[in-house]
Design goal:
- It is built from 16 helices and 8 strands.
- By secondary structure, it is mostly helical.
- It has 4 domains: 95 residues, no CATH class; 82 residues; 184 residues, Intergrase catalytic core (hpI Integrase, Chain A), CATH 1.10.443; 78 residues, no CATH class.
- Strands 1-2-3 form a 3-stranded antiparallel beta sheet, covered by helices on one side. A 3-stranded antiparallel beta sheet has the order 4-5-8.
- β1 and β2 form a beta hairpin.
- The radius of gyration is 36 Å and the shape is elongated.
């Protein structure tokens, strides 16, 4: 039976109790009831008094044992009641200090964010993101409602008001998730009177994902050309590293020379530069707190790294003001004093650079510095790179993240896959005796037009050759069904080996 000293139930003894025979001895029995629910349970104790066939002396002794048993149980229940009252008083006292239920939602959110940071559940940068998300609740009348009085209708009304004020659905959705997480945690607490999560039944704002804005393929050579003609600078180093490794901006700024292994041809990503309002810029672990390695591009990146490594080595030999005993501990993307460059500086500088050079992305918008990461991933997939390897290089925990973000960014990959799967589909649908030439010929023309519309076109040798090879392959595999396929390809298009 559960120990009443550890229970919040209020128990009492019902009636006087009694004795009964059990396996040749007398047993004392008491009935205990829960005052709140009325549920009754029996408590019994073996008296050790044998059941005698003659006389009642045994029963009398058992009744005396019952009286003692009752006194013990009464004392135990009294102590349990004192303990329960003490726990309740403590909970009420704590409630004045730590009870979320009666707090306005805005205060509860700020308290919750501080608690998450204290318990090391979030990083300072995530704390800042949470604060921003909380503002959209705190600035609304919803923030004034006590936590235990917020309803699903209140949440839906809040969403409508914020949308009417022009809050972006993505931004509003983050606030929605923060509120939902707060209630999910509070529902697990024992000293709060939270009945349900009002965000569970509410309609979260619909977020329409936008394709990642990578640099247009025809502009990648231009970016490489412009940066190659620039003098060595913090900005130039950051751009080249991001474009050829796919590292995040914080990881680029946090890279040290000791993380670059020329012998193995690998870069180890260990740290990242972050910024929070009350702390400024600082070094922290990577986003997923994991080390990862990135192969050094032997053509586009390795000569560049050797060049700037020699520059930094010479600078170290000539300038003692750096205060460094060796180059290993210094940052690759560094300021004149050897310290790391800030992410805000790199972002601002690249914005100006992108505008000046017309670096348009696949979304018909100027790319940001983070767009260089998307550019790296897009080029990787476009040229047949393995998704699993890309996941490791980018530092994604799950390959599905990589697929969801990047696999659909280039129409080329979809067209190529369609060409590969089409033979089996046509064969099963039309049968061997039907010649789908004209129909499939039209599909080829549409594929070519799609390529041209997206700026890749049949004019690019690599794209042209891939397309022609795919068409020729399926034509050879299914000569009867695809006798007219090769006629769909423009006469001037030839495979260049």
């Amino acid at each position: 039976m559960q120990n009443e000293k550890c229970s919040n139930k209020t128990l009492r003894i019902c009636g006087a109790g009694g004795v009964r025979k059990n396996k040749g001895v007398w047993q004392a029995v008491l009935t205990v009831a829960d005052e709140a629910t009325g549920k009754k349970t029996q408590r019994a104790r073996n008296t050790g008094v044998p059941c005698l066939k003659e006389g009642t002396r045994g029963k009398a002794a058992a009744l005396r044992a019952l009286s003692e048993f009752r006194s013990e149980v009464e004392l135990e229940l009294a102590e349990a009641e004192k303990t329960r009252a003490a726990i309740g008083g403590r909970a009420r006292a704590d409630g004045k200090r730590d009870d979320y239920a009666a707090l306005p939602l805005s205060e509860a959110l700020e308290k919750f964010i501080a608690f998450c940071l204290e318990m090391n559940r979030i990083t300072p940068t995530t704390r800042d993101d949470y604060h921003y998300s909380a503002l959209h609740i705190e600035r609304d009348e919803l923030g004034l409602v006590p936590v235990n009085e917020v309803t699903t209708d209140d949440v839906n009304a809040w969403s409508r008001r914020r949308i009417a004020l022009g809050t972006a659905p993505d931004t509003l959705n983050k606030s929605f998730k923060l509120g939902k997480r707060l209630y999910a945690v509070l529902l697990k607490r024992s000293n709060d009177t939270i009945g349900r999560n009002p965000f569970d039944g509410a309609l979260a704002p619909r977020v329409i994902a936008r394709p990642r804005n990578a640099l247009r393929s025809d502009l990648v050579p231009k970016l490489n050309s412009v940066t190659s003609m620039m003098q060595d600078s913090t900005f130039r180093r950051a751009v080249v590293l991001a474009l050829h490794t796919g590292m995040r901006i914080g990881e680029v700024c946090g890279l040290r020379w000791c993380d670059v292994d020329f012998e193995s041809g690998l870069i180890t990503v260990r740290h990242s530069v972050a910024y929070v309002k009350d702390r400024g810029s600082f070094i922290k672990d990577t986003k997923n707190h994991d080390l990862r390695t990135i192969p050094i591009d032997p053509v586009g990146l390795l000569p560049f790294l050797r060049e700037i490594h020699e520059i930094d080595s010479q600078r170290l030999r000539e300038a003692s003001t750096l205060g460094l005993r060796d180059l290993a501990g210094s940052y690759v993307v560094s300021r004149p004093d050897g310290s790391f460059a800030t992410t805000s500086y790199i972002r601002r500088a690249f914005k100006t650079f992108s505008e000046a050079n017309g670096l348009m992305g696949t979304n018909d918008e100027l790319i940001t510095f983070h767009g260089l990461r998307h550019t790296f991933a897009t080029q990787w997939i476009r040229h047949g790179g393995d998704i699993k390897a890309l996941q490791s290089i980018l530092g994604h925990k799950d390959a599905m993240v990589t697929l969801n973000v990047y696999a659909d960014i280039e129409p080329m990959s979809k067209i190529q896959n369609m060409l590969r799967v089409s033979p089996s589909l046509w064969r099963g649908y039309l049968g061997l005796r039907v010649d789908p030439g004209p129909m499939f010929q039209q599909k080829i023309r549409e594929a070519i037009e799609t390529l041209e519309a997206f700026g890749y076109g049949i004019s690019e040798p690599d794209d042209r050759n891939v397309l022609i090879r795919d068409v020729q392959t399926i034509s050879r595999l299914y000569p009867t069904e695809y006798a007219a396929v090769l006629g769909a390809i423009p006469t001037e298009a030839t495979v260049v080996e």
